[in-house]
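lol ok so funny story. i was supposed to be doing the assay writeup but got distracted and ended up predicting the structure for this chain instead. priorities right. anyway since i did it might as well share w the group, maybe its usefull for someone
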Amino acid sequence: MKNKLPSEYQPYDRLTICSNALIGVGAIIKIGDIEPILIGKGLRKPLIWLKARTNNQAWIQVVEQSVSLFPQIVSMIEDTPNTIIIKANSNVIINAIQDGSTCIVKELDLRPLGLNIFGDSQSLKVGGNEFTGNTMQGVGTFIGIDDK
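and the output, tada:
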């Protein structure tokens, strides 16, 4: 299944995700052809798209433009003028702040969505790998995972 980006999605010029700076990077994470997380520019705060993996390994969209499509999975969305916090029960899935054409992700935890990807302002952990303080510029994908 080929992943198609939403027409409303506009990437940031610079996105810092759990201490890793992405400048002009196409995808944050790709699993096969799927991007389970998109963080795009909003008017004042980030717009978030999230996908989760079902028990039969299919992908479902659970958050679209920062709106929960499955309240039983993503239960709370808090926002302030430039910040969005999305939670599953009381667990933070993402905490992101927009500052002009940049975005800083202070907290990320996709484990409630079936993905072993999580991090804080110090580092990003993907499976058994840890990414800390990297700068990527002009690459197609920051983290690519084979889906086979």
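The radius of gyration is 14 Å. Residues 14-137 form one domain.
back to the writeup now i swear
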